[in-house]
Amino acid sequence: xxxxxxxxxxxxxxxxxxxxxxxxxxxxxxxxxxxxxxxxxxxxxxxxxxxxxxxxxxxxxxxxxx
Length: 66
Known about the structure:
The protein is mainly alpha-helical. Helices cover 56% and strands 6% of the residues. It has 5 helices and 2 strands. It has a two-stranded antiparallel sheet.
């Protein structure tokens, strides 16, 4: 699964820690999601989307192999 979280986060001027604090997760969670080493739960994905006032579909997309 590909994601655009880092792009949205940087455009908003947020650090990984600031995003983590805003949605009540650890910085490591944000880091592992951004690098696609961890697929977030639906709840975390929705919180991230809400933070950036966008949709989950704008943040995440399936790769052909998925």
